[in-house]
User: Fold these one by one.
Assistant:
Number 1:
Amino acid sequence: MTKQFIGKRIKRNEDPRLLTGQALFVDDVEIPGMLHAAFLRSDYAHARISSIDVSAARERPGVVAVYTAEDMGDDWEPGPPLVSPPPTLQGVTFHSRRQAPLVRDKVRHAGETVAVVIAESRYIAEDAVEDISVEYDPLPVVVDLGKALEPDSPLVHDDLDSNLAAHLYQQKGNYEAAKAQADVVIKKRFYLDRGAAAALENRGIVAHWDEKGKQLIIWDTTQAPIAIRNGTATRLGLSENQVRVIAPFIGGGFGPKMMMFYPEEMLIPWVSMKLCRPVKWIEDRRENFYATTSEREQIHDVEMALTKEGRILGIKDDFLHDTGAFDPYGLTLPLNTQCHLMGGYDIENFSSNCSAVFTNKPIVTPVRGAGRQQGIYVIERMVDFAAKELAIDPLEIRKKNFIPPDAFPYNNVIVDQAFATLILDSGNYMPIYEKAVEMIGYEQFVKEEQPRLRAEGKHVGIAITPFIETTGVGPYEGARVQIEASGKVYVTTGYGTQGQGHYTSFAQIVSEQLGVAVSGVRIITGDTAEFHWGTGTFASRGAVVAGNAVHAAASAVRQKVLKLASKVLATPEDELELEDGKVRMANIPHTSVSLGELAALANPLRGAVEPGTEPGLEATDYFGPQYGAAAFGTHAMIMEVDPETMMIEIKRYIAVEDCGRVLNPMIVEGQLHGGVSMGIGNAYYEKLHFDENGQILNASLADYLTVTAYEMPPRIEIGHGETLSPLNKLGTKGVGEAGAIPVPALFAQALENALLDYDLEILETPLSPNRLFELLYKS
Amino acid sequence: MRNLFNLSVTVNGTLYEREVEPRLLLSDFLRHDLGLTGTHVGCEHGVCGACTILFDNEPARSCLMFAVQAHGHKVITVEGLGTIDSLHPLQEAFWEAHGLQCGFCTPGILTTLVPFLEKNPDPSEEEIREAISGNLCRCTGYQNIMEAVKLAAEKMRD
Amino acid sequence: MKPPPFEYYAPTTVEEALALLAEHGYDAKPLAGGQSLIPMMNFRLAQPSVLVDLNNIPKLSYIHRDENGGLLIGAMARHNMVQHDPLIAERAPLVHDAMPKIGTPQIRNRGTFGGSLSHADPSAELVAVSVALNGRFRLRSQKGERWVPANEFFVGLFTSVLEPEELLIEINLPPLSERSGWSLMEVARRHNDFALIGVAAVVSLDKNGSCEEAKLVFLSAGDGPVEAHQAAELLKGQKLTAKAIQAAAEKAASADIDPGSDIHATAEFRRHLANVLTRRALNDAFERAKGK
């Protein structure tokens, strides 16, 4: 059958609703009798609560209830861990500490929920929050990651001896032996700091407990509705089937909406059950900075051992990872970092200690990139420094060390976030790298343009950064595909959507199997009443895992269609084809039967059916990959810097990406554009500033600087490779985070290259004009 | 201090009369009192632009206005630009050029662009960038939004 | 982030507005464009118990010539209107240049000239520009009127000499002298952000092409607009050579301003930028002055 849908730039099914304001987001939900919640959040980052007086708040007209931890009684308990440490990892220390819906003993980060007000409107609820008086006993605060493990540091969790949340060690080969053989050993320390996801839509939850029907419906801006349903049912003593969680249209996820259970997610459904009224809580932007998770703070002490020809013999990286005040997300982030510390290079020896550390700051969970950027930043910086030290061309040194194409699947020995051994399934790094080199015009720039610009006194630099990205991890997802008697195709999966175009890319997969127009495929995602098996949208796994589940289910339906059509048309299956919503004989196209007619035939109202037949043209199937698929790419950039004002201007930007089979190039490009914009933010604009009291100094969009149209390059030029993944039938890999991953490393290289006369050495990210000023003028 | 005002405002061509508290933000009035949820709220401090509507035909942040200030005025929201069956050429262009992903910032960008394109039927890239510089988008990196605007200008010129 | 409750009045004449301000005194705040006040109210950083909405007084919005070749601007003239007005471009090109730097297009549809000045934010372009242009502000209350020169109007962080019962109703911008040039230079992290620091420069030349007078006014360099008096003094009577300009820039940065530090820029970085921007602004202004 001709491939008509996969790989095509098809307009998105979901767009008309989004464009006309007809798409439902959580805050759009209105239920008669709905109440509104507002939280009293701690201003202190670390303090005991001696007393809370909510009496004045309770008396305010329009206030229906006020709850503190004490009011929850036996229902008060911390949330379950979302991710546990891999059982496959040896010698792990892990102290699980999870957040509770309302603080009981002491506050551990600024913004923790101390009380909740339920009122007729959000306005009144906020007024009542100001009526509450809390007596805090402030405690010394620990915010500095580098100091949190010192013996005299304040303890975030008093029942532990230190702020060590976790420790793990991974190795490959024997680094010390490799070091002994090396001609040169490079040592550096890197500082990486926090950024927020800052999705345009803040979090929110509406919970509606129907007392008569004993059903709970929840709308939640979550990336994991099924897990929310199951966890909520357990917490509230309900059966899973009494709880329905709907993740409707969501205004951007980027990771933090995958985190669960947030305190509000534990509390609001409980309140709804208590009051037998629907309750809505919508996070405001100021809350978002404190109450929604963020990521990226690490300190790395790195060593790289090389031969004088530039061959990397080994790398050792001992690093600290800030997990914030609690650690519900296990070791996912440090493991992702470790799995990217070798990049796409053939490195036989690796050693890495990681200590995850508690601090009095908001919780750390994945934000687009999820620990991968830090790994890529470190390896790419180290390779740059090695090139400098050995006087080898930075491109040549990389080419020397890339994993060769015949070495795949490449076993990197260490354990990854999905508890499996890190195996890079397929790859062909050189052509992608060289494509980027060519697209940016590297040779010509370095030989002609740059010297000319330098002579004019301009500081223009070029950078090229390769990277890998582990994607498409398990455990699994599922999908159900059904052809209805109308001829329309209905698909449902638990895998939610936050703008990635699943309503279209999944439809394309179905269209490919069933020969229907993409616009004729209706996808329902993120509603547990429609489909209740699966994990969630994270780690660039949608196309791979959910996509392949959709593919499997659609293929199964295709088989049913062919079998039935074969009988109806009295023709062997291999002489039939599916096109335009019909099944027709390949040689006699006007002999056909429509899919709708077949669906009706498959669901007879009278007569007998053969034993073992399933009604209708419907199938449910699942997909779980053996391990994650490793996508890869190279970004390149030409950037001008004004060394007087520290202002930068990106002149050209190239992103070459290989994510295996592409379902919809338009959607993939969009993901890359968005990822790069976040990467640029992470490199030069975005940083969460904490003061020594654990307060966020830039908790507003005026001061937390996400990029606008002006900060973007004139155009992101995209190149593609397509090295199929052997791990799934579609041959596809993930791409959702790729755009963001190499950018900080790319910026560092470009700045150093632009400012060669300043002999800059960049060991940190994010940067800023002020920081660049300090690096240039204080050296 | 619960003084209520009689508000009379035309939204998307329909006259609405309601009693409102002065502090009710125009964004909340449109979304919750009138049920026009196409206008989105991203920050409530006037930076993100998701709440942008047309106030007397000029783009303005509805989170930085009180509903009472709209008394006697004309408001157009994204719902007034087009419907699923009859999209405005700008909406069509965004659809064709993949100018939206999660769609949360989109209504505010569409309302901002309608008067812009009416005044600038053949805008330069620089002018387009300036026009959307007051709207934050976290998904698209703005590139396809720019393409959509160019496409829309073409459509609207024909 | 919802604002706390307040009493709301929407007068249709200046007299009505002034009567309300006189009645409520410190409890009341005038509401102009709202682009600075309403975010503060949403954050509950400002909690006025009475708001006097000035947006229904059309008489307060205008741009006229005055008889001296300068301009009279009604306080409620919206930034958008000022940005596109040909009189502004002709008689106050420094203002014309400042307008696109103010906020974003949507902010400029609501924000007002007088509102920005009354808010007295040291990062506001119009604050520095009005001082650089020797602007004069007309303040009115029920008791009467007074004119205040721009450089006396701003007395502290977000503080002007406006009494609670007074309104800024008009701004007069005198014309620039014949052989003068101007420039506004600033550095911001993102294009539309508040400047890390900026300088409005106006220079006038004498018949010999030497500097007759220079005015350098900084934004984001202190609690209010900061005039670089010592730098200006250095330039007086001088030929504007690269060396002279450099000396003035260094003086301004090291001696005239005392900028603060925040998460976006340290005082040291601001001084460094002030030096660079002053040099560039003086060059720019000088070129313009010569061109006339």
Number 2:
Amino acid sequence: MKKTDKHQELICIICPRGCRLTAETGPDGKLEISGNSCPRGIEYARQELTAPMRVLTALMRLQNMEKPVSVKTDRPVPKALLFDCAAEIYRTHPAPPVRRGDILIRDLCGTGCNVVATRDAIAGESR
Amino acid sequence: MKEVELVVIGGGAAGMAAAVSAYKNGVRDILILERNSALGGVLQQCIHNGFGLHRFKEDLTGVEFAARYADMVQELRIPYLLNTFVIELHSDRTITAVSPEEGLMEIRAKAVVLAMGCRERSRNALLIPGARGAGIMTAGTAQRYLNIDGYLPGRRIVIVGSGDIGLIMARQFVLEGCEVAAVVEIMPYSGGLPRNMKQCIEDFDIPVYYNSVISEVCGKERVSSVLVGKVDENRRLIPGTEFEISCDTLLISAGLIPENELTESAGIAMSRATKGALVTEDLQTSIPGIFSCGNVLHVHDLVDFVSEEGEEAGRNAAAWLLAEKETALKETASKETVSKEAVSKEAASKETTLAETASKEETKAGNIRVLSGDGVGGIVPQTVRQDTPLPEVHFMFRPLARYRDAVITARYRDTVNTSGAGENGAARTASTGGQTGQNSMNASGAGENGAARTASTGGQTGQNNRILIRKRFLALTPGEMCKITIPAEKLKNAPEIIFDIEGTQV
């Protein structure tokens, strides 16, 4: 997707409805967005066309534990940094126990986002 | 034999929601049977986000969504058995199950909620030819290996089918440092949600081959490559179009099939369209007191709707149990005026069975058939009871094609023709008791497969269409579940309900 295009088509990823959005740049440089079913679509399109963001979910390996713990970023991170952020998560090996909601990395790659555990991981407990 | 008021089979999103909602509606004697070692079902392995936007107005991961419900189950102290596999469900609502702790057990349930979910369509179901080396698995199996067990199943991956699980796994594999060489889809469009095509495939420039199939799997001990070829409009391989893609893993992501072996073993009438049980608007199956919800009833796209349906089933099961109790009390009170205390449990249960049969026969006559018209497939529920106690009825179905500027209508014909549709109706009304299963399966199967569709073309005379509801949609895709709610009041005088989709097919 080129940023210089006057007419751009996007798929909103905010909710499962997946609205097909159209963004038109007028001669005055103003962005007109249509096709959205709710105001979040407009917000998404503006963000997506300027600085796309994504929530990152991944697995984090723990010390002395075979099974990984699932984690997420507590807010969307810049799409361009997804691989850097994933690499940082893979490099980190906290010690169990980990509880759902625990912050495992603060300010991930300078994004200001935290990495949070999405499940409990307690040594010796099966799942 | 253990006696339980309400047994929920399956501790996933649907089952937990059903148990919680039954509890909140007054049922105290509940038991959830779960074959896995934890509650949550498939959500345990869904570490990605996008869950809960409807139900909790929050963007949760699947794991967190499951935890929300598991917490509710714990807080309400609803009993559940893990590692417990149900072997058989009988038509009298007794359940045979087995677990390492309890061994073989028999449970007699007053009511049952079926919430077994579904399983993935396998390689054999797709008839993919070629070698049978290691490295071929469903996308969900790979998801489990990686997210629960921590094993990476391969390094260079080809995915056949573009179902949502495959798309989600494609993204995760790329982020894990693997290469996803191709997604191969037989249809001209994706089988997954548009947002997953965007954020999992397009975001990472993964090549997608539409109108294509895997024509051969190569490799001895392990998959080494696949041949990909184009298909014609009849989905037949076009010779000479094949090319080779090297890979060490082939993931299959080609749809889900409701896991209804138990349902069928009980003799419950099934729908050919949904591959789930036939249900009335309260999600009750052809056996009174057995309810079905979630992916075992029909495959959903969103867990939010699965748990919503589970809550509905739990609420309806609670209402049914209460009504049964009241009927039994009334019957015993009128018959046994002298020695109330002497009424044995056996007698009470015999009365219940009689009352059941009677009430079932009554409602059979007042059933409104729900039919798929133009462009509509796999509608749930298949019948609405005219005397439904519910304030509104939710209908769910999938469009059969891709539409732009579409209108969904629900209508009924003023004069119902007496040919095909009438016969089906008669078969259904006539069928009672033990024979219900077979008869109504045939009747309703025929209805689903086009009794309404032929009628809707307007060949019959003297028919006026009465519109119950019209809803406009910007776009409809075949993968997308449509949900239409109609107040029960509006349905009271309808002899049938037909859903149609009109619009520009694209």
